[in-house]
Amino acid sequence: MPPYLLGLRLGGRRVLVVGGGRVAQRRVPALLAAGADVVLVAPEITPSLEDLVSTDAGTAGAAAGGEIAAAEAGPRPARDRGAGGRLTWLRRAYEKGDCRGAWLVQAVTDDAKVNAAVAAEAEAARVWCVRADDADASAAWTPAAGTVGETTVGVLAGGDPRRAAGIRDAVVDGLRDATLEARHSRHKPVGVALVGGGPGDPGLITVRGRQLLAQADVVVTDRLAPRELLDELPADVEVVDAAKIPYGRTVTQDRINDYLVEHVRQGRFVVRLKGGDPFVFGRGAEEVLHCAKHGIPVTVVPGITSAVAAPSAAGIPVTHRGVTQEFHVVSAHVAPGDPASTVDWPALGRAQGTLVLLMAVERITLIADALMRYGRSPDTPVAVVQDGTLPGQRTLSATLGTVAAEMDAAGVRPPAIVVVGDVVNVAREIDTIRADMGRDP
Ligand code: SAH
After folding, report:
1. How far is the CA of 177 from the centre of ligand 1 (A)?
2. Is 56 among the catalytic positions?
3. Residue 123 CB coordination number (10 Å)
4. What is the structure's pLDDT at 164?
5. Is-contact 221 230, C-beta < 8 A?
6. In whole angstroms, what is the distance from residue 289 CA to residue 11 CA?
7. For 168-224, how does the pLDDT look when each residue is reduced to its tens digit (9 = 90+)?
8. What is the CATH number of domain 308-433?
9. pLDDT in tens, 317-334
10. CA of 426 to the centre of ligand 1 (A)
């Protein structure tokens, strides 16, 4: 027969635990978290159980009399209940009569005879008793449990505690990242979520971003958004490549904007997934403005920008004490000197801080020349990180004087980040230390 699963609300109710070893150490914190008045009967208990013993209400430490009544010194104020239980330790062996007054009993000593005696007393008194040593002889079983927010799950796997814990972990993980509740949850979001997908590794999206992605009806994605995340979506989620939206006006951005509005009007929740952070050279704000004009609610979920993550993944700190107190993030999609450029290249040439250049691959010759012309030394260390955080990540090391030729020779392709400044040496220093330690254990 399958067991009948209950959620016991133990606030302020007495639970007797007989035994102070490893099993008690696992069970007591959960009972206290449920607000129970736990009475622990054992000649000895583990140090972590000792830490949990309440020192309030005059029943400090081991109750002297050894009588259960001693545990009752001072009734617990009602307002205390539910705010976490309390633990009283009776430092002695189990005695017949200890089950009196308990709503629940845990027989968790390492002596089967004692457990059997406790269970027999509980049975006679019609109190539920859990035996840790003998599932068949136990009136009740403890499920593997976990709580996420307001949801508590309990799993019994036919007496196989390992399997139960494994299933519990899977359910808890699924609740945490919302892949479980997904699209059928009560709190289905509306409108558009503009989600930063991070630099490429699917593990580097935020928890919020993943939750929303799991609830999407439609996902409009960019070339740089982490592709692997899309493979996890249920088959009926519409995934649209923003570059290939098949209708509308000619300018791609207008088409994307119209597409977002149209789908939300059809009652769908749309996730607009972008690489990195949506507001760092991602045109995210244009989409937010467009939705705002059409009365569409938008949630913006920040992302880890490649501007910091790609250097970081390559071991390059964008700031370092004693080296630089600033880093400048620059879009180099327009070359220095181009009338369309709004970047103050002379100032960047004079500045001492780290430069992080995005979209610079095709224009690196012009960029390096400009920086040297405006004051940076040709010896300034430079690193180029291609496909940062992705399986194909690679780093090229150069100087401002050599970087253009070296990138050309190495065949560096976008997406890549160019980091200019002395912080690049910090990464080299770390590498050298590691290499030395490898050689010289
Ligand atoms: N919103 C994005 C940036 C978009 S601009 C973000 O915050 O990361 C596109 C540029 O970002 C690329 O040309 C490249 O310079 C950089 N980039 C994006 N992902 C990258 C990655 N995984 N590795 C290296 N550079 C990357």
Report:
1. 25
2. no
3. 14
4. 94
5. yes
6. 50
7. 999 998 888 767 765 556 677 999 999 999 999 999 999 999 989 999 999 999 889
8. 3.30.950.10
9. 999 999 999 999 999 999
10. 22
Cis peptide before 415 (omega within 30 of 0): yes
Averaged pLDDT, 148-166: 89
306 in ligand 1 pocket by Cβ < 6 Å?
A: yes
Ligand 1 site, residue 358, Cβ cutoff 6 A: yes
Distance from the alpha carbon of residue 169 to the mean position of ligand 1, in angstroms? 35
Write the residue with the smallest CA distance to atom 11 of ligand 1. Answer: 358
Out of 3.90.480.10, 3.20.20.70, 3.90.1170.50, 3.40.50.720, which CATH number does the structure's domain 14-142 have? 3.40.50.720
pTM of full prediction above 0.85: no
CATH 3.40.50.510 fits 192-304, yes or no: no
Question: pLDDT digits over 366-415, tens only?
Answer: 999 999 999 999 999 999 999 999 999 999 999 999 999 999 999 999 99
Task: Sketch the domain layout of the chain as residue ranges.
Answer: 14-142, 192-304, 308-433
The one-letter amino acid at 86: R
> Coil, strand or helix: which one is 349?
helix
Which residues, in sequence order, are bridge partners of residue 16?
39, 105
Give yes or no on whether 14-142 and 308-433 have one common fold: no
